[in-house]
Each structure stands twice: as structure tokens, then as C-alpha cells.
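User: Here's a structure from my thesis project, written as C-alpha cells. My advisor, Dr. K., wants to see whether a designed sequence matches the one we expressed. Can you design one independently, without my sequence as a hint?
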């Protein structure tokens, strides 16, 4: 399911649909497809909405990942179950697994699929214990895996379980009977309550391992961290030139990267291609830098993510920020923790962007600014209204 507009991830989703936001410099959905391929799920159907063409362009027919991908576009918003109904012709022959295109995970999906095949419920929901499940659907499950209650986004007094739905479902084609065609219909809000009221069986399975949906910038940071932690040992890949930088892996680096003298890189770090790093630059653990970036002398990049074509001026400090494509940050700027800067932004020298501030695309910030609140570009809001 790749249809969502990713409103909570703005300004990043003005340029990339959620499944295309880069994780370790690759669209996040590519990691998901590669995981599915490794697990032996090789027939994939993607339901597309907001900026769907971008996703199709990036993945093609899937043969590069050892899978076959079919695409189904939604002309109007159909909700999660309605979107699956719209793809029924590809799904009607055998049980299938439903995932969000923005899921980042390391779960044994085969185990879940086998459980579904061995039991007789038309739907099996993947459940995870979560401390604060208010952002999720919660389920009450008995010892035989049968779900008796399900509540979407419970309020503080309504939490009867800490078992949260991952939004990963294994479904038998028989569910199509209960989903109306061409109409907005949701698994969590419509289908599950209908099934429970009609005494139809819904099973749950407890999944183990890493799972998040990249819905918010906090979840996005978490997902990048997991993937950086999974980089193998001290690997240094790709070819780069340096005079006397100090480099500590794990580091994954693209071709044609140039690192100046006396710079220090402490992994895990991923760097794309054709990026130039000046002298006396510090790049700290959990940083990802895209391709064609320029980082000038004496800059510091600490657990931050720079997309492609980003320039960071001399002596600037990016600490726990995300900077989208084609953005230029002047000299001696400071981006505090949790800042998210959209694409094609210009930040004048000696400016401070305070903690948690977001800056919409194509905004120009004057030099010597101190920005404490989100800066919106109303052209973008208007163009994306209702999406
Ligand atoms: C209406 C709906 O589909 N809700 C799902 C879905 O919520 P979103 O807020 O739409 O991401 O994904 C959650 C898992 O991330 C799941 O717990 C919840 O039940």
C-alpha cells in the first residue's frame, strides 16, 4: 500500500512520496522489496496514489530485485481495504500479505504466512507489544490467537491491551466478499469491526524483530539508525581519495568521493557518489550523506541525514537534522536537533535553526537569522491541498 500523502512527514514528502524517502541513500521501499525477495515473496502488487509514478519509475517491473511487480493506481482515495479490493484481480487466487509501502522491518514474514495457512481465519494480523499504543490499532487476543476486540487509535482511558497492530495482514481471498467496490473502506476502521460483529474469525500473531512505519520524522530517524546498525563490521566500500583523514568504519561510500586533510569520520556512516568533503570536517556516527554533496572546511555533521546535492558552508554544524535535496546552507550556521529542511532551501550564513523547526521547500532564510518556528511556503501548501 503506497497511496498515502505522508502529511506528517512534510516538508520531505513534497518531493518524495513516503515510500521513496531515502534510507541509506535508497528509496525506503527498495529495502522492503529486497527483504520480501529474500523471504521468497516474489509476486508483488503495489497500490499507488500520491506521486505514484515516482515509485513505479524507481522500481520498474522489479526484476532487479528478483521479484515481479504489478502496479494499480487509485483514482480516488479508497482507504486500505478499498485499495486492496481495487487490486483484486491480482490477489484472488491464494492468501496474500498486506504491508505498508512505508514499513521498515526485519521480521520473519514467512512464519506469519505459514501460521495463516495452517489456521482457518480469513485474516491474520501481525501484532507487536508497544509501550504507548495510542498511535495504533490495539487488539485483545486469547491464548489460541483469536482476536476478540480491536480498537483503532484508542484514547488514554480506552487502552485495554498493549498489543499494537503493525498494519501487516495476511488475508485469504474470501475477504473480498465483505469489501465494497469503489468506495472508501478501511481494514482497521471498517473491515475488522464488521468481522468481529458478525462473529467472523480474526487471528493475531506476535511478531518479533524490528518494525516501524516511516510516518513521522522520529520514526524515520529510528529506521535509519536500524539500517546503519546493520552495516557489516568495519567495511569500507567504494573508492575515495583523501590526504590524511581519520576514518573509522563501518562506512559505506560511493565512488569518486574526495575527503580533505585532517577530517575525521566515525561510522556507521553512508556516503553517496561524487561528494566532496573539505579539511577539518567531523562526520559523526549515524550520519547519511547523499550524492553530489559539498561539505566545506571545519563543518560538523552529527547524526544527520543530507539528501543529494546538499551544500554545507564552512564551519556549519548540523546536529541531528534532516536536509532534503538541492539545499544550500551558508557558512557558520547551526541546525539544532530535530530540524527538517525541505528541498531547494537557501539558508544565509550565521543563521541558527532551532530544535524541531521545519522549513518548507524553496524558502530563503536571510543571513544572521534565528529561526524558532516552522517556516511554511504557502505555494506548496496550496498545491498539495487535499492530498
Ligand atoms: C486505519 C488504519 O489502517 N490504521 C492502521 C495504520 O495506522 P496509520 O495511522 O494509518 O498509519 O497503521 C498502524 C500501524 O502503523 C496500525 O496500527 C493501524 O491500525
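Assistant: Designed independently from the structure alone:
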Amino acid at each position: 500500500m503506497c497511496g498515502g500523502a505522508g502529511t506528517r512527514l512534510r516538508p520531505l514528502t513534497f518531493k518524495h512520496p513516503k515510500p521513496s524517502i531515502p534510507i541509506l541513500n535508497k528509496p525506503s521501499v527498495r529495502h522492503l522489496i529486497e527483504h520480501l525477495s529474500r523471504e521468497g515473496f516474489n509476486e508483488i502488487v503495489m497500490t499507488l496514489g500520491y506521486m505514484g509514478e515516482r515509485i513505479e519509475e524507481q522500481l520498474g517491473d522489479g526484476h532487479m530485485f528478483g521479484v515481479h511487480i504489478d502496479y494499480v493506481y487509485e483514482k480516488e482515495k479508497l482507504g486500505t481495504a478499498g485499495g486492496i479490493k481495487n487490486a483484486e484481480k491480482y490477489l484472488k487466487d491464494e492468501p496474500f500479505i498486506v504491508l505498508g509501502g512505508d514499513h521498515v522491518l526485519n521480521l520473519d514474514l514467512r512464519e506469519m504466512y505459514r501460521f495463516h495457512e495452517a489456521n482457518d481465519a480469513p485474516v491474520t494480523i501481525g501484532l507487536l507489544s508497544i509501550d504507548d499504543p495510542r498511535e495504533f490499532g490495539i487488539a485483545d487476543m486469547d491464548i489460541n490467537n483469536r482476536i476478540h476486540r480491536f480498537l483503532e487509535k484508542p484514547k488514554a482511558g480506552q487502552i485495554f491491551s498493549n498489543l499494537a497492530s503493525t498494519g501487516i495482514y495476511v488475508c485469504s481471498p474470501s475477504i473480498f466478499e465483505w469489501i465494497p467496490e469503489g468506495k472508501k473502506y478501511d481494514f482497521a476502521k471498517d473491515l475488522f469491526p464488521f468481522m468481529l460483529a458478525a462473529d467472523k474469525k480474526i487471528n493475531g500473531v506476535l511478531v518479533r524483530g524490528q518494525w516501524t512505519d516511516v510516518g513521522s520524522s522520529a520514526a524515520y530517524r529510528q529506521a535509519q539508525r536500524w539500517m546503519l546498525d546493520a552495516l557489516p563490521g568495519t567495511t569500507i566500500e567504494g573508492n575515495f581519495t583523501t590526504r590524511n583523514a581519520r576514518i573509522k568504519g563501518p562506512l559505506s561510500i560511493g565512488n569518486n568521493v574526495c575527503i580533505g586533510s585532517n577530517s575525521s569520520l566515525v561510522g556507521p556512516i553512508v556516503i553517496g557518489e561524487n561528494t566532496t568533503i573539505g579539511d577539518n570536517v567531523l562526520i559523526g556516527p549515524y550520519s547519511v550523506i547523499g550524492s553530489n554533496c559539498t561539505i566545506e572546511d571545519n563543518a560538523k555533521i552529527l547524526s544527520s541525514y543530507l539528501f543529494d546535492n546538499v551544500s554545507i558552508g564552512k564551519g556549519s554544524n548540523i546536529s541531528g537534522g534532516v536536509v532534503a535535496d538541492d539545499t544550500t546552507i551558508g557558512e557558520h550556521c547551526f541546525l539544532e536537533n530535530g530540524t527538517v529542511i525541505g528541498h531547494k532551501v537557501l539558508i544565509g550564513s550565521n543563521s541558527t535553526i532551532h530544535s524541531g523547526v521545519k522549513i518548507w521547500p524553496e524558502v530563503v532564510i536571510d543571513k544572521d537569522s534565528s529561526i524558532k518556528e516552522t517556516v511554511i511556503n504557502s505555494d506548496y501548501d496550496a498545491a498539495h491541498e487535499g492530498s
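When you compare it with your expressed construct, this may help: The mean pLDDT is 94.
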